[in-house]
Every structure is written in C-alpha cells, then in structure tokens.
C-alpha cells in the first residue's frame, strides 16, 4: 500500500484539505509546522529573555500519533527488495569485457568497443556493480557454465586501493 492510498483511505470529502491534514496529523505546510529558526529570531530572543536556549533543548512540539501516521510508518518500515537493474546494452558490453579480459581493467579501457570511454576504474566499478546484481550476473554465469568461485579466482590486475 502506497502512502497516497493510505491518505485516500482516511480522506473525507466534506472537509477542506487543511482540515483533512490536521485530522490525520499530517502537516499541510511543513514550513509552518517546523519553522526554520533564523539567527535574527535567536538574537531577539536572547535580547528579550537574556538567556540562551540549552543545548539539546527540543523546540519542535511532538504531535500525537494517530492511525494514519502509524500506517505510514509501518509501510515505510517494511523491507523492500532491491530493484536495481543494469540496461541490456551495459550487460552486453560487460559480458564482452569479462569474456575477453576477465578482470584486466586496463585492457578493457583500451578496447575499441569502449566507445563510452570508461576509464579503468569505471570499468572496475561497473563490473563490481554487475556482480552484485544476482539475477543478472547469474544469467552470465549460467550461459558460460561458470561458478562464482571460478570467477572469484580470476586474477585482478588493479588492487582495491
């Protein structure tokens, strides 16, 4: 359930938007609910009161948490699967580089198919990122009849430094 669906569930058409937000405990204007303190306001307060605010003193008033906010917090706290995927053109180029050079990033950098002009470190970054995306890298391993241990045993020509 998305945040917008949660808000729609508790929305009442007979109220204004400000009244609906207040009833749900959501701020309709964050600039008013959590004001950004200006240095001028702090100086005026010091001149009038003659005291400084203590460090750690919380000036933001906490509002009571209601069903809408609890539902939103539950939705946000749910663990989501990573949806990172590399484009097919990247995959094809990285497969070509891995087949031809394994982990020799300097040779990848000098290859004529490196028309994007990736540096050796950029090639290394992209290969490492590709290897972290299990679904896409597993296809590479299956198509080449390789295991992850065999790939990890390939000599790397650039150190991690």
Task: List descriptors.
161 residues, mainly alpha, 10 helices, 0% strand, elongated
Explain how this protein is built.
The protein has 161 residues and is mainly α. Helix content is 57%, strand content 0%. The protein has 10 helices and no strands. It has helices spanning 3-10, 17-24, 30-33, 39-49, 67-77, 88-101, 105-110, 120-132, 134-144, 148-152.
Task: Give the structure's gist in a few sentences.
The protein is built from ten helices and no strands. By secondary structure, the protein is mainly alpha-helical.
Set out the fold topology.
Layout: H1 3-10, H2 17-24, H3 30-33, H4 39-49, H5 67-77, H6 88-101, H7 105-110, H8 120-132, H9 134-144, H10 148-152
Helix pairs in contact: 1-5
N/C terminus separation? 44 Å
Structure classification:
mainly alpha
What's the alpha carbon Rg, rounded to whole Å? Answer: 28 Å
Largest sheet: none
Order of helices and strands: HHHHHHHHHH
Q: Please state the overall shape, judged from the principal axes of the Cα atoms.
A: elongated
What's the assembly state of these chains? single chain
Average pLDDT, to the nearest integer?
79
Low-confidence stretches: 55-64
Helix share of residues? 55-70%
Count the strands? 0
Helix count from the secondary structure assignment: 10
Strand content: under 5%
